[in-house]
Amino acid sequence: MRKTAPLLLSSLAAALALAATPALAQSKGDWTIGAGVHQVAPKSNNGSLAGGTLKVDVDNDIKPTITGEYFIADNLGIEVLAALPFKHDINIAGMGRVGSTKHLPPVISLQYHFNSKGKVSPFVGAGLNYTTFFSEETGGALAGSKLKLDDSWGLAAHAGVDVAVSDKGSLRVDVRWIDIDTGVKLNGEKIGTVNIDPLAYGVSYVFKF
Asked: In terms of residue numbers, what domain contains 110?
């Protein structure tokens, strides 16, 4: 369930405060590596199971992330996102916490960077996500049952801003929307689909090679 992101807002303010530093140009053939921390916040309404009788809520989680981007042309790059496994509690209305799962949501995106020779460089991107779920557990009303979440393919969108802090480094504040829908099986029987569709937002340090 999404919550307000004070970390994102404060990081953006800090980034803009550093706008007087040198520019970080991004040209064809450049590589960047980014290391940071992001929160995955599923949308508020995650759907329902068992013919619409069980309303599902998936909690947020925050983990370290890493990105790599290769510029195929000036200002235009291909980025890959990776992270440590995110873990989410699964709740059902009226039952409370009934399980949890871990997932990895790698994303590959094509991104365009505006004003890449300036000190503040916004960017937008779009790409493809593959999410794999594992380590599903049950508890509460579903304790002892076997829970399985199917892997998911979906589209992704990305936007953010880089603020140069040196000629090689920048502070990045960004947000990413990911289309994640997973089929749910309980004791081998399919009982519906959960629509996670999270926002992933956070801050990272990006270094250019």
From this structure: 6-208
Does this model's pTM top 0.90? My answer is: no
Q: Which residues sit opposite 65 in a β-bridge?
A: 36, 83
Ramachandran area for residue 135 (φ above 0: left; ψ -120 to 50: alpha; else beta): left
End-to-end Cα, the chain, rounded Å: 38
Distance (Å) of CA 96 to CA 14, 45, 142, 161, 184:
38, 15, 10, 38, 18
**What's the pLDDT band for 1 if we cut at 50, 70, 90?**
low
Element (DSSP H or E) covering residue 16: helix 6-17
| CA–centroid distance for 80 within its chain | 12
What Rg do the C-alpha atoms of the chain give, in angstroms? 19
Total domains, the chain: 1
pLDDT of residue 27: 84
Structural domain includes residue 1: no
Whether residue 63 lies inside any domain: the answer is yes
Buried b (16+ CB within 10 A) or exposed e, 161-176: bbbbbeeebbbbbbbb
CATH, residue 140: 2.40.160.20
Task: Count Cβ atoms below 10 Å from residue 85 Cβ, excluding itself.
Answer: 15
